[in-house]
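G., before I forget:
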Amino acid sequence: MTVSPVLCVENLVKTYAGSRKAPPVEAVRGLSFSVEAGEFFGLLGPNGAGKSTTLGCITTLVRLTGGRILVDGVDVGKRPIEARRRIAVVPQVRNLDRDLSVREVLTYHGRYFGLPAEEREARADRLLREMQVADKADAKPLTLSGGMQQRVMIARALIHDPKVLLLDEPTTGLDPQARRQLWDTLRELHARGLTVILTTHYMEEADRLCQRLAIVDHGRILNLDTPASLKKSLPGGHILDLWARSEAPLLPRLSKLPGVLRTETLADASGADVERLRLFVDARDGLLDRVLHEVREGGGEVRHISLTQPSLEDVYIHLTGRELRE
Amino acid sequence: MTAFLALLRRDLSVAGRNAGPLLLATLTQPVLVVLVFGNILPRLHLVADEFRTVMVPGLMSITMLMAGVQGVLMPLSTDLSGSREVDERLLAPISVLGVAFEKVVAGAIHAGTAGMLALPAMMLLMHRVTGVDVHPRYELLLPLVVLCGLLSAAFGLTLGTQVQPRFSGLLFAVVLGPLMLFGCAYYPWTGLSVLGLFQYVFLLNPLVFMSEAMRMAVTPDVPHMPLPLMLGGLLGFTALFTMLGARSFEKRTIL
């Protein structure tokens, strides 16, 4: 059975127009991906990578500069109203209607989408229960905790029965308990067949939830695959961290060893006693021995050595670099 | 259309819940002005009797302008604030211009209601004062109130989308204040012929057409602007501000 993509993003370009004081910003520069129906998809990237802009374009709130987006076959740029019926968004900023009660937030949202009275009341009841906010139905949204507001926003998003649920950094600012609860909720929604797309810069979140991940930076996709394949994509597939004191610089000699595919200096070693190195290695037999041998040959001393499988964070840093953002 | 009506219903029901403060905000000004200029000053023989008749329609138009502008401006500043509450409404299955126009209609209902409440409130305050010549012609009043409401709200949409919320205090002092003073609220436009060609400079002020419209509908015996000019002004300014406001609303909301 072939599944058709429920979302197609083709060569998406978004440039925010500049002003007298600010130059134009190329937020997204030719981004393409597609998401199958029922998939849990993630956009992972640092601040300013273009994740939220991409989400904005999909949800019709940001005008496309170039490219095309199809949601369930509907061109978002040409038929935004039709597209909105098929998607739902949980934005990064909590934007619940502060003049309404929690229950009214849901029922009014249902009204906007033309749900008949009985149906919207029934759905509101069900979603309030499912999101565990039924006891807050008559409260004003701003009196709720961050985690609760987040769940009300999900309930609001689901009231018109969308095909795709998009969440923009949904767990930013939540405490660990609320975060885990939200993960469970999202997993359950996905298990019921909903297509879920989220942006995040939390590795753990991306790793645990997403079936496929696009790592995005500077408005482009750097890599797109399952979390497991992404981890395998690092040179060699293994990481050897080595802290050593040495008379002569270690890096040139270690990088010549067979099985060492790439090297990095972890911390600025100048003036420091100990060099901290990261080697991307293929973990062939005898490699550790040869590394230790090399260090001792140069009159050095190993302080710490570890051979690990790369984490998603290693892949992420490998692809997006170490420099600080913003 | 369903989404449009649902949005309108939401705005009206929220406004209904805040009816008390809203009424206070819109009726305080006309009631106090009537008290001073319609009751106290005439007793002191400091203003002419005719003034009381002239100011009633003028105060109605001011009330509507303020209610319309505030009715759109205040919610808009929340909508466009950091939390972007407007995004939820923009995700409804309705065009962005539809959302903007809904705001104008909601503001117009607010303005019209304020105007229609201001009239009896003023009459009640002056019911024992002689020389007031107010005879509302309701068949004219109702459609003109609708037009004035739309104009006020469209003006509010233009101001609300083009002026940053932190300057809204300045807005009232620098824009709305002068508009009210030169809006023919306290004197009929036809009387300005004494100013020569300057009379026509006043036509740049949308409030002039509102005041004259109310003058025609509420105090038919006072001379007023010819109907075609008045309707042209009301419709023209409404169209202009709706267009400007909707365009900048779209610019502010869809990035």
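Chain A is about 35% helix and 30% strand. The interface with chain B takes residues 16, 56, 59-63, 80-82, 84-85, 88-89, 91, 93-100, 108-109, 111-114, 156 of chain A (CB under 8 Å).

More on Monday.
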